[in-house]
Amino acid sequence: DFVLAIHGGAGTILRSKMTPEREAAYHAGLQRALEAGRAVLAEGGAALDAVTAAVMALENEPLFNAGRGAVYTSAGKQEMDAAVMDGRDRAAGAVAGVCGPRNPILAARAVMEKSDHVFLIGESALAFCRAQGLDFAEPDYFFTQQRWDALQETLAMRKSGADDQDESRKHG
Amino acid sequence: TVGAVAKDRHGNLAAATSTGGMTAKMPGRVGDSPVIGAGTWADNETCAVSGTGHGEIFIRYAAGHEIASLMRYAGRSLEESARTVVMDMLAPAGGSGGVIAVGRDGSVSLPFNCSGMYRGYVRGDNVLRTAIYDEPFRETR
Q1: What is the DSSP string of A31-66?
Q2: Minimal CA separation from A142 to chain B, in Å
Q3: Given this model, what pLDDT does residue A17 score?
């Protein structure tokens, strides 16, 4: 039968900062992603479509560090990376350093399915996505106060020389 | 970082990973997520893998491909291979994080060497299992 596994990152927030409400929200986000992929597989759909659906659901959740919930670079910008691979024939597609496509995983999949390449980056990747008609979002769609505050805290700690013990800021 | 791996009813595997990177990363820095063989890998003969963590180490150890190679050439199980890479290779090198993986036989492995990893899986029984830290999975139908 089918099986689907997902992760929402190893950058879990400190246990001391975890509240019952936050914990419930994370579980609910994971469940929505599992359900998105499960629905594909239960209908006899392809693993490739299931992982795409699951990752899109996670990208749409501001809780997780991808897509809508992406963190900020030291310059206060967002740069997203994504990749997809098909086990049937090792077809693969990836993008890096992009901000604009609502779902970066669809950009990676477009590279795999609509180009002769495996990996596109930056402005050329964005131009390719536009040419493929992918859905773009305005910058405010990707803004989350939590991620912006995390950037300010990290920059302040770097300036002061303090060690950042919070894995949610140290990990992707 | 987020990711998904799956095996469908036809026996095909796939992997996908997406990330915003690390907070306050250097502009232009690329981690393991989009690097095929490091943070993302799928091959019907072995497994599908998606990683999350200290990307530079995952790249240097070709984490996803290494798991597949242990299965292919050393005949190890998915669980042995994934744990070997995450616990014995990545962790000593400073590569904190984890992976999710499914094998060609439908096995699932979700090892991590840090305090937690937002994770979950579902099989044909349609029970959604999710976990964050080293606690038992919550089951939802």
Answers
A1: HHHHHHHHHHHHTT--HHHHHHHHHHHHHT-TTSSS
A2: 10
A3: 87
